[in-house]
Amino acid sequence: MNKAKLRGFNRSLPMSLLRAREAVMKKFAPSLKEHNLSAQQWRVIRALKEEDGLDMSELSERCYLLMPSLSRIVQNLVVRGLVVRKLVEGDQRRSAIVITDEGIKLFNIIAPKSAERYEYIAEKFGPGKLELLYELLDELVEKIDE
Amino acid sequence: MNKAKLRGFNRSLPMSLLRAREAVMKKFAPSLKEHNLSAQQWRVIRALKEEDGLDMSELSERCYLLMPSLSRIVQNLVVRGLVVRKLVEGDQRRSAIVITDEGIKLFNIIAPKSAERYEYIAEKFGPGKLELLYELLDELVEKIDE
DNA sequence: TTATTATGCATAACATGTTAACTAAATTTA
DNA sequence: TAAATTTAGTTAACATGTTATGCATAATAA
């Protein structure tokens, strides 16, 4: 479906990246929506599962979320009992964000499905091409940021 | 800057695509912001410059904007006098969106700068790699949508 | 022709993206 | 030490993303 060659302005880098991202996200969305998680909320949980107790600034960098968005997202996750805030001794400005047992439980339910989807994509597309794509994307960012 | 190898979950397709897109967008943002245009508003204007008088559904597809977003965006552009709505004879549900002279004038101011930025990126990255990237992205979308 | 369904589009409601204040705590400077 | 500055984080305000709902007009079935 929708195989028509891209015309004019639609064949642009931002649009192509957007389309690719949306196509990929569609594969991951269902298992997240099942648990009422947005892609952004899921990013925060994964980041904390990888390294717990990060402060907001660290979390913001790792999840590629701006502070205002992250602030609201963490509030939401706190209300849902998936993470908690803890005081950082020695600096009253910071707060460490810690994943709860319930958060970990949720992670353990979703992560396998997510990995499965990822494997599916990698296989469909070809692992070699996938690696090549990563490298091109990294290099693009690198070259642009000069 | 920020050259640390991506760890863990940050090396994922959605994240890499997001980073690349943001890096690219940053190059185009300034000339748009100069005229108080968002990337989305600019997409609509470009689409209409390419083919005028599209209805909302067509515009939605070509700009990769969902109808609710597009609805608000067009309202904004109408207020600013950059486009107008015209009745479609034979179907009272549709409305044709038409770019105004002022809209065209704005396009003619921004488009050259935009093209310039694009050339810069293509040159920095390498035209061959850019073409390869396009092809990989297209193929990724194609393979995923099955 | 009337009832039903489909289409085109708008609005509602809420999460996120984005820029700009703003607060309080920590650090630096004078 | 007092004042200025920096840092970490929140809140405000508005545009957009996203799903659901509503509402006409059009097309179709009965």
Task: Describe the fold and architecture.
Chains A, B: One of its GO terms (molecular function) is DNA binding. The structure is a homodimer of 146-residue chains. In chain A, 66% of the residues lie in helices and 8% in strands. With 146 residues, chain A is mostly helical. The first copy, chain A, has one domain (13-144): Orthogonal Bundle (Arc Repressor Mutant, subunit A). Chain A is globular and about 55 Å long. The mean pLDDT of chain A is 93. At the A-B interface, α1, α2, α5 and α6 of A face α1, α2, α5 and α6 of B. Chain A binds a DNA duplex (30 and 30 nucleotides) through α4.
State the domain count of chain A: 1
Which blocks of ≥5 consecutive residues of chain A have pLDDT under 50?
none
Biggest interface and its residues per chain?
A-B, 53 and 53 residues
Give, in order, the helices and strands of chain A: HHEHHEEHH
In CATH, the homologous superfamily of chain A goes by the name Winged helix-like DNA-binding domain superfamily/Winged helix DNA-binding domain
Distance between the termini of chain A: 39 Å
Give the quaternary arrangement of the chains.
homodimer
- Please outline the major beta sheet of chain A: 3 strands, antiparallel
Outline type of chain A: globular
Report the radius of gyration of chain A as a whole number of Å: 18 Å
- Report strand order across the widest sheet of chain A: 1-3-2
Number of strands of chain A: 3
What is the typical, i.e. mean, pLDDT of chain A?
Answer: 93
Beta-strand percent range of chain A = 5-15%
The CATH class of chain A is identified as: Mainly Alpha
> What is the CATH topology descriptor of chain A?
Arc Repressor Mutant, subunit A
Tell me the CATH architecture of chain A. Answer: Orthogonal Bundle
